[in-house]
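Course assignment 3, question 2. Fill in each field.
Student: A.L.
Task: Predict the tertiary structure for the chain below.
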Amino acid sequence: MGARKSPKPARGTLSRERIVAAALELIDRDGLDQFSTRKLGAALGVEAMSIYHHFRSKQHILDALLDHALQSVEFPPDDLPPVERLERLSYAYRAMARRHPKLYPLLALHRTNTPAGVAFLQRILEMVEPLAPDDESLARQFRAVGYYLTGALLDETSGYANGPSAAEPVSSAYIAEHCPLLARIAPYFAPTEWDATFAFGLDALSEGLRVRVGPKLPPEKAEALTLSRGKGRKR
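Answer field:
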């Protein structure tokens, strides 16, 4: 009778940090649909059940991944004007989504209701509050920026170009003949144009905040808003 094989040793001490890092690597490579605790255990060199000593369920792992992604977003310095801070944060949030395009759709649609998640929201609100004359304006500004970022980043990470198609899609020749305006502008939809399009939309949103909110602000807030006009942004 042959010698009994010893269990395969784990590659390093198992920890929450190692599990999150390995899970993120798997999702970045294979996507959310292919993610499982069995595959995660294999990547870590342990049985899947060992993971449950650190996370009670797969959903708890996903929650930790979302927290990790949010905590990787770099907030701009406190001494910048409010609108510039908001713009820089938008670019930092976009960078996070572009780093993890296969995770971002979950983040976009998941409630931000973990302790780390609500702390992230609170920090953004504290940053935007100087631009708001009252709580209603603060809520609407916060939501408007969220609408823009969510829509833009879902489109960039998993949107239109990768979405479902018609059973019999029209050809480029058909579009050129029947929809000439669409054919002319189509080159500007390419991924190489996304940076310019994102900047265009964010600039429009920022200017809209200045125009709509500025006259309603008390003098001390209005001065901070005025200072943000014409300042260059580091992206």
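Instructor remarks: Residues 6 and 199 are 57 Å apart (CA to CA). The chain has two domains: 16-56, 69-159+170-227.
Grade: pending
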